[in-house]
Amino acid sequence: MASVLNTVPSIKLSNIGTCRVRNNRPALTPFSVSFTRRRLTIRATETDTNEVKSQAPDKAPASNGSNFNQLLGIKGAAQETNKWKIRLQLTKPVTWPPLVWGVVCGAAASGNFHWNFEDVAKSIVCMLMSGPFLTGYTQTINDWYDREIDAINEPYRPIPSGAISENEVITQIWVLLLGGLALAGLLDVWAGHDFPTVFYLAVGGSLLSYIYSAPPLKLKQNGWIGNFALGASYISLPWWAGQALFGTLTPDIIVLTLLYSIAGLGIAIVNDFKSVEGDRALGLQSLPVAFGMETAKWICVGAIDITQISVAGYLLGAGKPYYALALLALIIPQVFFQFKYFLKDPVKYDVKYQASAQPFLILGLLVTALATSH
């Protein structure tokens, strides 16, 4: 597997170690790729700088970006030379909370979590496994295999800018992966499992992350399959890990969380709008590329809203009307922010939309978890 992670997409190199890759699409920015012994650099060519600025004024140099964005690993980050800050940026801490929250929901759904030192300690270790380690692994490996796309969409990210070397990225991928799997094994021993459920969930999630980003499968090339896989990774897997740690996974929980993963598909589409240019250049069929921006916007909000309404209907049918009403009440502000931000401009307002609407979605997850535990 080490050889797999060290695989580099096919780019022909000249004898002097530098080549230039041109895309025939006139709307796209040419970029150069240079390899040295330890460092990979992909950057827009200097001759086209003015053209890039006129086509994509939001792609400001990282030196003009935000230090806060850099630490969270989101667009608009400042350029950083401190390697530990760069490593943190690659793990995208802004993506950790949904996984951490998924563990909370799973623990709540088990009905066996108690506010004592041992259970709290177990849950924290499970959160570390799901968030910083395995989500960090997922984000780093995704950036590694997206380095050509990022050279077009976000050329100042650490890998395409050359701020971190190839060997350092590969090392980070392995440390995070093996660290996450080790914590999963520890949790199974701690919980006294006869079958290492948490470990196998971690292995499955790690494999899913790999085939999502890496060739030859590269699930993200297909907007439907890739986004559903991403939604399942962010909602179902951490929930299952939290519930397996404190209780038993049941078929109804598996079905319910996979249904919620359709809402996760909608959330994943939100992030595709800012990458349309690069996705189109490299042939990735994200939904905004396949259906166009307008149609993809409605697919996105439909997946999020219809899923939650369906779950509310399930809770109502299960004889839990108060939980169903609470979930419906949490959908209303999401719809409001969809019209206020996302449907107006999913690129310009993506951060505002996610910051305002998604807290209500994750609260709805907790409502559902509590409903299933009673």
UniProtKB/TrEMBL annotation:
<dbReference type="InterPro" id="IPR000537">
    <property type="entry name" value="UbiA_prenyltransferase"/>
</dbReference>
<dbReference type="GO" id="GO:0015995">
    <property type="term" value="P:chlorophyll biosynthetic process"/>
</dbReference>
<dbReference type="InterPro" id="IPR006372">
    <property type="entry name" value="Chl_synth"/>
</dbReference>
<feature type="transmembrane region" description="Helical">
    <location>
        <begin position="322"/>
        <end position="343"/>
    </location>
</feature>
<dbReference type="Pfam" id="PF01040">
    <property type="entry name" value="UbiA"/>
</dbReference>
<keyword id="KW-0150">Chloroplast</keyword>
<feature type="transmembrane region" description="Helical">
    <location>
        <begin position="173"/>
        <end position="191"/>
    </location>
</feature>
<dbReference type="InterPro" id="IPR044878">
    <property type="entry name" value="UbiA_sf"/>
</dbReference>
<protein>
    <recommendedName>
        <fullName>Chlorophyll synthase, chloroplastic</fullName>
        <ecNumber>2.5.1.62</ecNumber>
    </recommendedName>
</protein>
<keyword id="KW-0149">Chlorophyll biosynthesis</keyword>
<feature type="transmembrane region" description="Helical">
    <location>
        <begin position="224"/>
        <end position="241"/>
    </location>
</feature>
<feature type="transmembrane region" description="Helical">
    <location>
        <begin position="253"/>
        <end position="274"/>
    </location>
</feature>
<keyword id="KW-0809">Transit peptide</keyword>
<dbReference type="InterPro" id="IPR050475">
    <property type="entry name" value="Prenyltransferase_related"/>
</dbReference>
<keyword id="KW-0934">Plastid</keyword>
<keyword id="KW-0808">Transferase</keyword>
<feature type="transmembrane region" description="Helical">
    <location>
        <begin position="197"/>
        <end position="212"/>
    </location>
</feature>
<keyword id="KW-0812">Transmembrane</keyword>
<dbReference type="InterPro" id="IPR011799">
    <property type="entry name" value="ChlG"/>
</dbReference>
<keyword id="KW-0472">Membrane</keyword>
<dbReference type="GO" id="GO:0046408">
    <property type="term" value="F:chlorophyll synthetase activity"/>
</dbReference>
<comment type="similarity">
    <text>Belongs to the UbiA prenyltransferase family. Chlorophyll synthase subfamily.</text>
</comment>
<dbReference type="GO" id="GO:0031969">
    <property type="term" value="C:chloroplast membrane"/>
</dbReference>
<keyword id="KW-1133">Transmembrane helix</keyword>
